[in-house]
Please model this.
Amino acid sequence: SKMRNIYPQLKINIHRCTVEELADALEKGKYDIINMLKLPHLDMAMPTGFIELEQESMYMAIAKKLAPELPKKITNEELESYLGKYPLLLPDILEQYDAERSGNDFMENMNIPAEHMKVVQSGTPISLPIQVTMELGISICNKTNLFSIDPDVSVAEIIDSPHYIKGVFYKKQMDNQYL
Model:
């Protein structure tokens, strides 16, 4: 690849795990940088620096059988209607971060009252598409998530939602030649 030609000593690992495991690996020097979404709860888990690379819209993912006429774009109000019918599926990415708190933080961030919403937190970001396909609930994702390639899942952009921030976490105390 072009990057490998420029930086032949660069080693790229793709590793899926909990945020705590990533933070620990970064702190211990196993990783130099971590490329991921900056979610609201990460400030407490990642004692690092962050470089923002881009902002990406939020999308609602739902089984096509549950919403066969889903438009390409929806509003927060329409999202709220779906959340009244189906549970919000969230990945269990932080061991200390419980489903109720995570759901409430999400709803607060989206300016949606969480009164009649059920939050289910289980699995990993990789397992959420399977859960959505099985009609267990809906999920919120970014456009480049696995949902976008699943033929049994519809994805709609939430046009009046905040954006996901994508970027790179790095250890502040380390001189990093790649930054």
About this structure: Strands lie at 33-38, 49-56, 58-63, 73-74, 88-90, 119-121, 139-142, 153-158, 164-170.
